[in-house]
Design goal:
Distance between the termini: 14 Å
Structural class: alpha+beta
Largest sheet: 6 strands, antiparallel
Order of helices and strands: EEHEEEHE
Strand content: 35-45%
């Protein structure tokens, strides 16, 4: 288990292809978008793996809860994650 000082957090949109992160918080003021993200399984504590990034950088293919999902980079900027070293 990592010590508190070693835990690195960033926005989900900052992760690179092949990196993973555990959702810490969602800072989204748009309630409809927040509900949609929750319905898709993006909840606190879930591990998200960056699978593919489109050639122009948007959208991004992520894997979570044993399925893949494409999500816009703008929506990913509202999700704070703890970086998981692999």
């Amino acid at each position: 288990m990592a010590k508190e000082s070693e835990i690195k957090t960033c926005k989900l949109s900052d992760l690179k292809k092949g990196q993973s992160g555990r959702v810490v918080s969602m800072n989204n003021e748009n309630k409809a978008l927040r509900r949609r993200l929750l319905d898709m399984g993006i909840t606190k504590g879930v591990v998200i793996h960056i699978k593919k990034i489109s050639p122009l950088g948007d959208p991004i293919d992520i894997e979570l809860r044993d399925y893949e999902l494409c999500i816009r980079k703008a929506d990913m900027k509202e999700i704070e994650v703890e970086v998981i070293d692999e």
